Backbone:
């Protein structure tokens, strides 16, 4: 069972990263390459190529969005204790060492705060990407929306890596052990 859970969490993290990369790469390609590539075509041909590219991009966005949500849920459940806590108890102290209170985490180092920023910004970015591919025609000014979404997606990636780094740093930080009080002689 432990091997299955390890594999599931490993695959969830891998899928999360791959789908985020596909979303960022697809957005970058659709925003920067397609307009330049169709620039010299006649307007009718431009619309045909743009529509086909939009159709392919739509499937990339929808597949990536679904996989990002599912893999994010799996990854979050694995690390929920670290994200939901403002302090850590460390029961793995060496024998004879104890802490009087759980250690408080400084506000900027709290993984949960970075996780919330990652989730909320990621939700906005995915909703923008989905809205750009929903409906029979693109929204007004799609390239501007794509550029905004590309910046948001890059910010989401930064926030996700920061949340992970904060979580790992807190788990690796020593707990400031104190000698256990000696028991009174009987």
Residues:
């Amino acid at each position: 069972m432990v091997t299955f859970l390890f594999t599931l969490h490993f695959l969830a993290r891998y899928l999360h990263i791959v789908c985020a990369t596909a979303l960022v790469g697809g957005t970058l390609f659709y925003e920067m390459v397609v307009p330049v590539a169709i620039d010299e075509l006649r307007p009718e041909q431009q619309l045909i190529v743009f529509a086909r590219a939009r159709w392919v991009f739509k499937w990339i966005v929808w597949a990536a969005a679904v996989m990002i949500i599912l893999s994010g849920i799996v990854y979050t459940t694995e690390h929920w204790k670290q994200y939901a806590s403002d302090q850590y108890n460390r029961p793995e102290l060496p024998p004879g060492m104890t802490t009087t209170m759980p250690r408080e985490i400084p506000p900027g180092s709290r993984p949960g705060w970075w996780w919330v920023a990652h989730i909320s910004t990621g939700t906005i970015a995915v909703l923008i990407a989905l809205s750009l591919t929903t409906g029979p025609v693109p929204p007004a000014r799609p390239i501007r929306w794509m550029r905004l979404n590309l910046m948001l997606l890059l910010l989401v990636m930064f926030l996700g890596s920061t949340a992970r780094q904060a979580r790992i740093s807190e788990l690796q930080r020593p707990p400031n052990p104190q000698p256990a009080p000696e028991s009174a002689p009987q």
